[in-house]
Amino acid sequence: MHIVLAQSWNLVAGYAGQISLAQHAFFGIGGYTTAIVATRLLSDETFYFNPFAMLAAGVVAALFAAAIGVPLLSKLAGDYFALGTLGFGEIVRVVLVKGGSFTGGSFGIAMSPAPFDTLAPHYWVGLGLAVAATAAVYAVSRSRLGLALMAVREDPMAAAASGVNVLRFKVLAFAIGAFFAGIAGSLYAFYVFSVSPVGFLNLNWTLYPILMCVMGGSGTVLGPVIGAFLMTAVFSAATLWLPAAHPILSGAMIVAVMLFMPNGILRVRVARSRRAPGGGWRPKRLLRGIEQPPGSVGVATRAPAGSWRGAQPGEEP
Description:
The protein is mostly helical. Helices cover 64% and strands 3% of the residues. Helix 1 packs across helix 11, helix 2 (23-40) runs parallel beside helix 4 (79-97) and helix 10 (204-216) crosses helix 11. The longest helix has 27 residues, at 166-192.
């Protein structure tokens, strides 16, 4: 479940460059959709891990993301967009609390635990969803959609000048990320058999995927997977052996990651590979098509024809 949730944020922030703080809202929408479908449309014998209920959870979350994504992403960016998504999460929480009998109020909705026999179905479904979410992110990263998202992430104005519909791709990434967050909420609803604003609209469901992506490496396919495994193991051990110090440990890990591994575990090796044998940093070759001898640093000079070339060893710049 954590891998699915981390990949949902990775697609929005890591590839599209939009920092979203609404993953807990989409997680809660997915869980509530599953509970409402299970208790009102399906019987006690057929609702458990019903594909229709899980698909409905993702679709409803994606529709909400598209509905709020168009006005937010067309007007806001950066920190302002993050605050807007955080405000949307609070709106969803208040609506669910004040929803009366339809949402169960502050107590939520309880599903019948009669179909439960073993946790094996939960594990297998969770594994399948984690593989599917990772495969989907890999497919996006290798497609024209992924190239467009990365172009928008690096420079929205340059992407728009190149013919990329910036708003459409931002909203699309936001909706796909919400779809996976809703699926994760549905999976968790089948795990606890009860949904409530306290359990599903908790900010931890936004902070955890952010930390997992940052730990493993956002904007990569396997980074959220590594971060999810590592952070889940650390949090589980801390809850079991150091329950009183769990929040302190979580905060200390966030600070340590941002100080020593701001680009994630997967990018540490890439950074080390750029170090020269003597300990210095190799200069980036910013000009494509220029071949320089190993160990030399070319200085860009203008050729007679008006093109740029690197000064060769022994030449005056």
